[in-house]
Amino acid sequence: LKTAVSRLHPECEFIFQLEREERRCLQYVAEQGNRSSEGCWPFWDAVACWPRAVAGETVQRACPAVFSLFKNNTGSVSRNCTGGGWSRPFPPYHVACSVDDDIPEELYFTTVKMIYTVGYGVSLVVLTAAVLTLLFFRRLRCARNFIHIQLFGTFILKSVAVFIKDATLFSSDDTNHCTLSTFACKTSVVFCHYCVMANFFWLLVEALYLNSLLLSSFYHSRRCLWGFSLLGWGVPVLFIVLWMISRAYFEDTECWDINEDSPYWWIIKGPIVVSIAMNFMLFINIIRILIQKLNPRLIQFNNSSQYRRLAKSTLLLIPLFGTHYMFFNFLPDYFNVNLRLCIELCIGSFQGLLVAVLYCFLNQEVQKELHMQWLRWRERSYGVVSPAAKGSQMDTPF
User: Fold this and answer.
1) Scanning 15, 90, 217, 378, which has the fewest C-beta atoms within 10 Å of its C-beta?
2) Measured distance CA(111)–CA(354) in Å, rounded
3) 151 Cβ partners below 8 Å, 6+ apart?
4) How many C-beta atoms surround the C-beta of residue 178 within 10 A?
5) Number of Cβ atoms within 10 Å of the Cβ of 252
6) How far apart are CA 379 and CA 372, in angstroms?
């Protein structure tokens, strides 16, 4: 128990220490209850315990030790015992004890939550439309689009998991996240971690598949696709189960959503870090291959269009490979939390939208099939037969 408590989030440690101080204070107040009622009664003001005092007395209390979790301070707060009771504390706690006003921080987190909620919501709709489009047209059924569908599926599950987790953990402002430890909240956290991990592994599958296409022209059989599926969906299950067992037996605290300084968090974070590093190396390798293939005769670029093609290919690969995650990949979890949240939550929430648009709706094959379907609809609705629609009646089976 001592090991688990020592790994509590500072905010939870703050709450638990306050609760312990409150219990001591209420016990002290109860013990003073039978004494004379003259002067000011002892009481707990939600931060410090104030003793009995006589009218006209000024009582000074050192800043509660719990504030040392955030800042090293040696200030003090005073109250006057008057005929009408205790005065207000002076100076205020946040001034005397150097505690920052947390209103701007709350506003920041509320803004971040609003942005990523919009991002995941829009991504969910667009990704669902992209998956249905790729499944609807027979011409689009190929190994490449099979992998795209799986990746889109992980983005969809990731969005759903975030909404479920927020609904479970943040449904009410009165929820105490430090004591919340229900089966529902733990299940939502586990599901969210699995979806995130599966998303990273399918990003890795995309990188492996593209590298294999550029390096060789072998046919990707069903066995190869099964191997990709096992890597993308199966491997995360193994690490998630190991993490669940570790948390349940060695660190069964709160809702399993606080992982700072926890060694067991590396069961999930470690494979994700490795997958991001591998994706980045595969990304660099693909750029190298593209540079060589842009102009087989001359590696030196003498045409600005060559640069444009390379830049376009590079930019298209960044969201597909999750290259932006390299920015914070090897930094500690507590490094610049605000900037980290902005990149991982706000920008990351729109990654699925960007991938769906770039690799589905802007794809020429998809656009052609959608155009043909529109022409067929016009023919059925208005009897207008276009040459393009006539030429598209014969579909090539997969």
Assistant:
1) 217
2) 21
3) 199, 202, 203, 205, 206, 355
4) 19
5) 12
6) 11
What are the tens digits of pLDDT across the range 219-255?
566 778 888 999 999 999 999 999 999 998 988 877 8
Counted residue by residue, the chain has a size of: 398
Pair type for strands 76-82 and 58-62: antiparallel
Q: Report the candidate in 210, 148, 135 with the shortest Cα–Cα distance to residue 398.
A: 135
Collapse the DSSP code of 331 into the 3-class scheme (helix H, G, I; strand E, B; otherwise coil) and give the result.
Answer: coil
Give percent helix, percent strand, percent coil of the chain, each to the nearest 5.
65, 5, 30
pTM equals 0.71
CA-based angle 110:106:20, to the nearest 5? 130
DSSP symbols for 265-329: GHHHHHHHHHHHHHHHHHHHHHHHHHHHHH-SS-SS---HHHHHHHHHHHHHHHHHHTGGGGGTT
CA quadruple 25, 74, 6, 20: dihedral, nearest 10:
0
Instruction: Fill in the amino acid letter for 210.
Output: L
Q: Residues 124-133: pLDDT tens digits? A: 999 999 999 9
Structure tokens at 375: 């022409």
Residue 355, both tokens: 């991938």
d(CA 276, CA 282) in angstroms, rounded, equals 10
At 61, give phi and psi (nearest 5°). -125, 135
